[in-house]
Amino acid sequence: MSVTELSRQSEKLENTFWRAAKWVESTALHYIENCISCGLCYEACPLYHIDPRYAPATVAEWFRRFYRRYCTVIGRLLGKLAHAYPVTLENLLRARDYVYRCTNCGICYLVCAAGIDSGYLATLTKIMIREAGLAPRALLKLEQMELEGTYRTKKVQELYSSLIDELKKVTGREVPVADPDKTFLIPISVFDLVFGRDAVIGTVKILEKLNYSWTIPREPVGIRPPIAYTTSSWDLAAAKIREVYELARILRTKALLFIDCGYPYEVYRFEGPYIAEIEQPKVLSIVELLEDEFEQGRLFLRRTTDVVTWHDPCMLMRRSGVEPPEKLLDAAALYGRPKRYGKYATCCGAGSHMTFLIPEITQKLEEVLETPLTQELEKDRTTKQLIETAHKIAERRARELADSGANNIITACYSCIEMLKLAYKKIGLPEIQVKHISTFISERLT
Ligand code: SF4
Ligand code: SF4
């Protein structure tokens, strides 16, 4: 490479840092500057239990290293002696091994006495990795399809039509598609069609029982929008956030109702207005609605003698503050509380981008999206290691939940459901069922 080419490449790489630095405001600055290396977050982090090299402070340290190099005098002068690293391809590849393991579960933030969100610093490093063209290719492919609308394949359309036919049977009337002035708009995605069909049907049964009006979009709103959020391409995610908010506004719906309570709910509920800089409609998760209806005495259930437990999706409980629906589950079955629950529940390993890297999940997606995805995963050695970590995290959580004595695990995020199902198969407990709360509650309606 000539000197001019080398200098251009180094400028390009340095620019990846400045693109990420755009998102460093006062809170992020606190995360960068105030870690005292006390190690309190280590024990809580699911990654640390699988391999102690990947503790929260070390995951977050990558962004700090780059920050010191470009934003502090001592880092500029002393370089590595001051733990300041330049952005090079080699350093970004090393950083990728750390930050792409982080599921952004948020437990390190919860236990840190200084209130440091290491997951957030990992997401900033992910901006740099994506800008340098080093993000996993399967993930970039999905992001692109969602943004360009090419996810609306023939198979996706067939699945949507068949869901509408099923809903017609359930309700005994025409399905309200893009009907204005309804209480709830359910933003159906490809994920709902592939992994949450029963949950959507269950939700509609519940809404009908409670006499709520509802509608669905003319076509799925994305693969699992905004996928760009999981690669930290927040500028691109903003477009998808605006699109869904705008749909709710045009239809004059009272609230967007999320069945998939993984990152889609958290992003549209809390981060959407910040990322997309637009006024937000009311956003609700199905768990909040069910808990509220139960507490108001409007939801009547037949109790089963099955033992159930609840798995808190990180994005629903820790990142959004939605409490475990324990009273509701106790009214529907024999509820057993797991050892770690609520704020302290352990991650299932499939958070953020990780879902899209799990071959069993991408295989199902590639069938309906009619595009090769798993072969992209196979080409990438680092991705294989990430997947192994995610499966080990899932197995640990699956065992914890099974220890509650439950034969039914109830949760509300499609990633958690798929990941725990795979874990139970792997650890030889296939008899344990993992269900979405809408499916479970709809079966118990009187
Ligand atoms: S967000 Fe979760 S996975 Fe990431 S570093 Fe913190 S505890 Fe570990
Ligand atoms: S608990 Fe907080 S201060 Fe302590 S090592 Fe972890 S991030 Fe740093």
- Radius of gyration, whole Å: 22 Å
Give the distance, in angstroms, between the N- and C-terminal Cα atoms: 72 Å
- Approximately how much helix is present in the residues? 40-55%
How many strand units?
A: 8
Fraction in beta strands: 5-15%
What letter string, H or E per element, gives the SSE order? HHHHHHHHHHEHHEHEHEHEHEHHHEHEH
* Contiguous helical run count: 21
Let me know the average pLDDT. 96
Low-confidence stretches: none
- Counting structural domains, the number is 3
Q: Structural class of the helices, strands and pairings?
A: mainly alpha
Estimate the global geometry from the Cα principal axes.
globular
Bound molecules: iron/sulfur cluster
Q: Strands of the biggest beta sheet: in what spatial order?
A: 2-1-3-4
What would you say this structure looks like, in words?
This protein is mainly alpha-helical and 446 residues long. It has three domains: 3-134, Orthogonal Bundle (Fumarate Reductase Iron-sulfur Protein, Chain B, domain 2); 154-291, no CATH class; 298-443, no CATH class. The chain has helices at 3-21, 26-33, 46-50, 56-71, 73-78, 89-99, 107-111, 118-131, 137-148, 154-171, 190-195, 197-209, 234-250, 263-276, 286-295, 326-332, 359-369, 374-379, 381-402, 414-426, 437-443; strands at 184-185, 214-215, 255-258, 282-285, 307-310, 334-335, 408-411, 433-436. The strands form two sheets. A four-stranded parallel β-sheet has the order 2-1-3-4. Strands 6-5-7-8 form a four-stranded parallel β-sheet, with helices on both faces. β7, α20 and β8 (433-436) form a beta-alpha-beta unit. The longest helix is centred in the last third of the chain and has 22 residues, at 381-402. One iron/sulfur cluster (SF4) is lined by residues 35-41, 56-57, 112, 114, 116, 118.
